[in-house]
Every structure is written in C-alpha cells, then in structure tokens.
Amino acid sequence: MSETANTPRDEALQGAERVVAFMTSDSAPWRWRIILLNGQILKESVNNFPGVVDALADGQRHAGR
pTM for the whole thing? Predict the structure, then answer.
C-alpha cells in the first residue's frame, strides 16, 4: 500500500529536475548542470563542450534520460 501512495510523489520528483547548459563568458566552452526546480545543483559537468547541443545531450545522458 505504501508503494502505491508514494507513486504520485515519485513521479512529481522525476519532473522536478532540469538539465541546463551554460557558459561563464563569451569565450568559455559550454557545460551542463542538473538542477532541481528550487535551484539546488545535483550534478555539474567536468568536461567542456563546443556547443550547447553537445552539452545538453551529455547532461541528459547523465540525468538518465
């Protein structure tokens, strides 16, 4: 019974994560972060990427999507 009661909450938490790509300056390479909707950082890339698409794709892989 507790498994059924937790299902909606678990599904809501899965949607609470976002993968974002960012640069620290115009000449910096792209990186990604996995964040919660409240702004808490869960993971951040250690690698740099030449483009935003590459950074987001790698971030999505790390997020398990």
Answer: 0.71
Cα distance between residue 51 and residue 57, in whole Å: 10
Work out whether the CA dihedral 25, 43, 37, 12 comes out positive or negative.
Answer: positive
Q: What is the DSSP letter of 58?
A: H
**pLDDT tens for the chain, residues 1 to 65:** 334 444 444 445 555 899 999 998 888 899 999 999 988 999 999 999 999 999 999 999 999 87
Q: Give the alpha-carbon dihedral of 54, 59, 61, 64, to 10 degrees.
A: -160
